[in-house]
TrEMBL record:
Example GO molecular function: DNA binding
Protein name stated in the entry: ABI3VP1 transcription factor
Stretches of the chain forming a coiled coil according to its record: none
InterPro entries hit by this protein: B3_DNA-bd, DNA-bd_pseudobarrel_sf, REM16-like
One GO CC term on file: nucleus
Swiss-Prot/TrEMBL keywords: DNA-binding, Nucleus, Transcription, Transcription regulation
Taxonomic placement: Eukaryota, Viridiplantae, Streptophyta, Embryophyta, Tracheophyta
Stored Pfam families: B3
């Protein structure tokens, strides 16, 4: 094997003789290259930059132990905490949407003496076809007897009118021709001249608040038929023909 070094004899200050290996041109060039690279690294200060990056990463690393938040009792939270709104545009909106039908204030209270009574829907009365037809026939006969100078319409009762929803839709043509164009209080007068106030919804063309109290008070059931006579601009005289009269007529 050929060696790339040669022996050099040197003498120390004490006169001691030593032999050192003389570097070849290749090793000398490699040594100079290493020193040059070292100087460049020192000029760039990469070791300081690397240490700074490690320190920043260690500082930004979140703690593995999560901080526990103090629990607030539900009743205290509901009483004290307020909902947070991130948008100023929504600041004036209500916390929860309200879908309940709002009754306009017309300066009078709707009679609710009977409106608070809830009917047992399991005890619904269903009229037979014969009884229903009989009530309608009697209502048509009554219509012929009433004063024709007052607008009149006939309305047979179904379950949605007298139980559950308690909503009474009125004939569209009648509403367009005779009833107000905006929401208005309408008075219903029964055959004993007792009055009940109801809310007429012009857009929906029907009676809403107050109709339930009237239906319960008059003990209306499925199959009954009503004759509405408009005696004033916002007042109906109401006549009732009962489906139950069908069974009395057979006796």
């Amino acid at each position: 094997m050929i060696s790339h070094t040669a022996a050099i004899t040197i003498y120390t200050k004490t006169g001691e003789r030593r032999e050192m290996a003389e570097a070849t041109p290749y090793e000398e060039q490699r040594r100079r290259q290493v020193e040059a690279n070292k100087r460049k690294l020192e000029e760039l200060q990469l070791h300081h930059l690397s240490a700074a990056i490690r320190e920043a990463a260690a500082a930004a690393k979140p703690s593995l132990v999560k901080k526990r938040k103090a629990r607030v009792p539900l009743d205290v939270a509901d009483a004290v905490m307020e909902p947070v709104r991130r948008s100023g545009r929504l600041a004036n909106l209500p916390d929860k949407p309200v879908y309940r039908e709002k009754v306009p204030d017309f300066g009078m209270k709707i009679r609710r003496t009977y409106g608070s009574v809830r009917r047992d829907l399991t005890n619904r009365v269903y009229a037979t076809d014969d009884a229903r037809s009989y009530a309608i026939s009697k209502a048509e006969d009554l219509e012929q007897e009433l004063d024709s100078s007052f607008p009149i319409f006939i309305k047979p009762m179904t379950q949605s009118h007298v139980t559950g929803g308690f909503w009474l839709g009125l004939p569209i043509h009648f509403c367009r021709k005779y009833l107000p164009k905006r929401d208005e209080m309408i008075t219903l007068v029964d055959e004993d001249d007792d009055e009940s106030d109801t809310l007429y919804l012009a857009m929906k063309r029907g009676l809403s608040a107050g109709w339930r109290g009237f239906a319960v008070q008059q003990k209306l059931v499925d199959g009954d038929c009503l004759v509405f006579q408009l005696i004033e601009q916002t007042k109906f005289k109401v006549y009732i023909t009962r489906a139950s009269s069908y069974y009395e007529s057979e006796d």
